[in-house]
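Following the same procedure, sequence and fold were stored together, as reproduced here:

>
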Amino acid sequence: MLESAFLVRLQVRNPESKSLLERIIRGFEDLEIQPPNNERRPDLLILELGETPDDDFRQIQFLMNKDAVGEVFLTSGTLNHEVLLRALRSGVKEFLSQPLNEQDVRQALEQFSRRREEVRQQAPRKAGQIVNVIGSKGGIGITTITVNLAAALAESQKVPSVVLMDLNMPFGEIPLFLEIAHKYHWGEAIKNSARLDDSFLMNILTRHASGVYVLPSPASVDYYDPQTTETLERLLGLMKRMFSFVVIDGGHSLGGISLRLLELSDLVLLVSTLSLPCLTNTTKLLNILHDLRHPPTECVKVVINRFLKNSDISLKDATESIKQEIYWKIPNDYRATMSAINQGKPLSQVAARAPVTRSLRDLAAAISDLQVPAEKRF
């Protein structure tokens, strides 16, 4: 079998249809029929609808949700509106009516080959990094840091692409901070998991003038379930392949979804302030992340926000309290940050020379130079 060939798995019971498909596929230089004992992920599954369509559609949904197949073609002697509608909703790319028309099959396979080749010919890109910004408590500027970090990364010549994702449910405020009128949120990916691919993702993203692509959170609590976590894993894996950085506003709660996404993160920025409640919570969170063992300890960085030199608690005191070095400190600048928030603009557009803006710009530069462990989590 050619390693570069696209693998086609046939689950077709009708002998005439199967024979015709095999003959046509063997006529393509870039297609190979998957042998029964081959466990490689097929690029295409051609499935014949059986006597229990519900089971077949459940199989298609399962494979698509697990990203266990590239595309699915469906074939059947039964052609009606309900079947076509279910096929479309399941993410099926082509419906081939039986008896098969050789020209229709050949055309569908040619289009499939062309689509896969276009993806293959795209310039190889280093896998992106997931930067998850979480807080030791609410109201300490997590969204301000997340939004302006993403904007600073996007404005850097060293970073080709950035996507900003809001996981602070149900109170996500990123659209307000960037004054964007978004049509979609990541709940669309959950509801349409079978359609989740590069094109679908780009259709639900909103591009900000800074160059950051934004995916807000849904304003509801209807997404706390196993399917949500599973689909978000696929979504993040897709984002890592498409973008240099995936910056997440992780809020300050640790639910089931948040814990799993922390495990998948390449870098966690744990935001705190020089206050006793924040530092106490920071110590608790560091212990939780240490027990999770993912991400590795060296990939969890503590960031002190609203830093004042004359604070009652010094950086040395904070370091001794949390038993970890402070990675970064962001100076306090209430006027500049509130002005940026109220105008719905990044700090770089409102107060480009302010110390807080320079600090966030330098943080973005430091992060883009970090070498995090290249552990495969998807």
Remarks:
- The chain has two domains: 6-121, 129-369.
- The mean pLDDT is 86.
- Residues 6-121 form a domain with the Rossmann fold fold (CATH 3.40.50.2300).
- The longest strand covers residues 300-307.
